Amino acid sequence: MMLASAACGIGGRKAGGDAQSKVVAKTGVINVVASVGQWGSLAAQIGGKDVKVTSILTSTGVDAHDFEPKTSDLTALGKAEVVVANGVDYDSWATKSLSHEATVVSAGQTVGATKGDNPHLWFSKDARSGMAKELAAVFSKVRPAKKAYFKKRLQQWQRQEKQLDASMQKFAQGHAKTTYAATESVAYYLMSDLGVKDVTPQSYVQAVMNGGEVAPADLQEFQELLEARKADVLVNNPQESSQMTNLLTGTANKSEVPVVDVTEQMPKQYDSLTDWVAALVDSITTAIDPEYGCTSDGDDADGEDSGEAQDSQDGQSEQSEQSDKTDASADAKDSDTSTKQKKYTTGDGDDASQSGNTKSGTEN
């Protein structure tokens, strides 16, 4: 009996050893599903050729706050190995009914934002930086053999973001007294990073945040502020349109206050979140100060193209992808700096006079 027990014991240890030896690290492309295109584009920048990214909400013609995912969207999320979400109640549908094996990367959790905070985190330099690092860490965890590659991609992204941040700081230092008003809170973080003060009437802000009707007196106060040109620029979200915001953008145009359209979702002409934010910065700074512009240094961009060319030797198209990004950024810069018109559009070409916002949960 003792011999039999010993034999069973040995057999048990051997079986356990065989089972452990069969646990092999996953290989192949990581299946990533993002709730919105802007975070999906960042995942693609960090993951490169080793990720396949599917973004659910990508249209600038859809109200993100009322978005309802299709069955196919939920199926894609359920099959994802990594889910990239915004959080802060902006896309709660994205993290429901997920596979237990899925890893969730949430912008809200990354920066500690909670319900009631402004949800448009992709416009925050801190959130973008935190998400880039978190994505690199998660990708490295699920594909340990690719850790060096993801680290390289992160460093490339950080150089681009550093260049963007430098241009924003330069503007902030030279325009300490600039102001803006907004029909909705989409660009709150972006304007804060640019150092531009929000002068939107608080009565209007509170009415919009509470989701109620804006009182005529509140609307009149906003109009008077624009007529007095107390704001250097009016920021408008064309995805949130109403007669009220049409009135405000019309008042701004008549009062020679520039109007800059800022959509919530990334327009299709941009291939990366970095390029989109850079184009918005160009548009806003040029609208405020047409003589200033926002010229970027091409040296780092050239270095990024060289790095991607090396990766493309593996049969990938990353070099052309980076070239497209550079071209898109350059085109946006040329377009923005070559005009001194009152209106600057960075969405899908929607007319500012036809757009605005009355939704709730819009913190300025």
TrEMBL record:
Region (Disordered) residue ranges read 289-364
Q: Which keywords has UniProt assigned to this entry?
A: Metal-binding, Signal, Transport
Q: Look up keyword Transport and say if it applies.
A: yes
Which residues fall in a compositionally biased region of kind Acidic residues? 297-308
- The organism's place on the tree of life at top rank: Bacteria
Write out the biased-composition intervals (Low complexity).
309-320
According to the UniProt entry, the coiled-coil residues are none
Ranges of Polar residues compositional bias?
Answer: 352-364
Stretches with biased composition (Basic and acidic residues): 322-339
Its GO biological process terms? Answer: metal ion transport
**Pfam families given for it?**
ZnuA (PF01297)
- Its main subcellular localisation, reduced to a broad class, is other
> Which GO cellular component terms are attached?
cell envelope
Where is the protein situated, by its record's location annotation?
Cell envelope
Q: What is this protein called?
A: ABC transporter, substrate-binding protein
